[in-house]
Automatic annotation (TrEMBL):
<protein>
    <recommendedName>
        <fullName>L,D-TPase catalytic domain-containing protein</fullName>
    </recommendedName>
</protein>
<dbReference type="InterPro" id="IPR038063">
    <property type="entry name" value="Transpep_catalytic_dom"/>
</dbReference>
<dbReference type="GO" id="GO:0071972">
    <property type="term" value="F:peptidoglycan L,D-transpeptidase activity"/>
</dbReference>
<dbReference type="InterPro" id="IPR005490">
    <property type="entry name" value="LD_TPept_cat_dom"/>
</dbReference>
<dbReference type="GO" id="GO:0005576">
    <property type="term" value="C:extracellular region"/>
</dbReference>
<keyword id="KW-0961">Cell wall biogenesis/degradation</keyword>
<comment type="pathway">
    <text>Cell wall biogenesis; peptidoglycan biosynthesis.</text>
</comment>
<feature type="signal peptide">
    <location>
        <begin position="1"/>
        <end position="32"/>
    </location>
</feature>
<feature type="active site" description="Proton donor/acceptor">
    <location>
        <position position="187"/>
    </location>
</feature>
<dbReference type="Pfam" id="PF03734">
    <property type="entry name" value="YkuD"/>
</dbReference>
<dbReference type="GO" id="GO:0016740">
    <property type="term" value="F:transferase activity"/>
</dbReference>
<dbReference type="GO" id="GO:0008360">
    <property type="term" value="P:regulation of cell shape"/>
</dbReference>
<dbReference type="GO" id="GO:0018104">
    <property type="term" value="P:peptidoglycan-protein cross-linking"/>
</dbReference>
<feature type="active site" description="Nucleophile">
    <location>
        <position position="202"/>
    </location>
</feature>
<keyword id="KW-0808">Transferase</keyword>
<keyword id="KW-0133">Cell shape</keyword>
<feature type="domain" description="L,D-TPase catalytic">
    <location>
        <begin position="116"/>
        <end position="226"/>
    </location>
</feature>
């Protein structure tokens, strides 16, 4: 691929590390940075249960610190220990991903007549590689396009791979890039897979997952993207 085409690819919605989502809707109380709120959130009991805390719906200092640690780990802001909709949304997604188990294509939505294919379920924010009906790798959590930058759905093919790619729009590294739709690609990032609000269209992966996808896929392999990411 020539330099002009490469620049065109990058210009079509390349993923970058993006700022975490603030709780603009239903946000917690105003709080100083680093502090811990004493106010119970609307998802207090669900969050307590997820974190293995006593489920009483009441905020304690220990509850707040546990919630705050989870928020810090996944880049959720404001990180004041408030059990709000974004924090619970991340936890709920984790629960749904875990429930998938080792049968990610049980809904039979990803084609089984294409041979080796990488599947992306936007609704559950997971991806896997299969060969016919045989699971080759995964499922693994991924981070796809946020609202306004959605990862496009449909059947696609990997058409360009660049192991040390750097976005010319956002000037950020995109290691193990495998492009499958315009500027949208599989690649690794250095943030949590549950870090809101999401990418600028690419399918973000951990370094370990991106390396595995790099070793298992090649130019010309199929990619199938379906569903709809929560919040888009």
């Amino acid at each position: 691929m020539g330099d002009i085409r490469r620049r065109g690819v990058v210009a079509l919605g390349m993923t970058a590390l993006v700022a975490p989502l603030t709780l603009a809707l239903g946000a917690g109380p105003a709080q100083a940075a680093g502090s811990c709120t004493t106010q119970a959130g609307p998802y207090q009991k669900q969050v307590e249960k997820f974190l293995g805390r006593p489920v009483d719906g009441k905020q304690s200092t220990t509850d707040c610190r546990a919630i705050q640690a989870f928020q810090n780990k996944h880049g959720i802001t404001p990180n004041i220990g408030y059990a709000g909709p974004v924090t619970w949304g991340v936890m709920d997604l984790m629960n749904k991903q875990k429930a998938v188990g080792s049968n990610p294509n049980k809904d039979h939505k990803c084609p089984t007549n294409k041979g080796r294919i990488a599947c992306v379920n936007l609704t559950l924010q997971i991806s896997w590689i299969q060969d016919g009906s045989r699971l080759v790798y995964g499922p693994v959590p991924v981070r796809t396009g946020r609202d306004g930058y959605e990862t496009r759905t449909g059947l696609k093919k990997i058409y360009w791979r660049h192991i040390n790619h750097v976005s010319t729009i956002y000037n950020v590294p995109m290691p193990y890039s495998q492009f499958f739709d315009g500027g949208q690609a599989f690649h690794s990032v250095g943030v949590s897979m549950w870090n809101p609000p999401g990418s600028h269209g690419c399918v973000n992966m951990t370094t370990a997952t991106a390396k595995k996808y790099w070793s298992l896929l090649k130019t010309g392999d199929d990619v199938f993207v379906y569903g709809r990411k929560p919040g888009t």
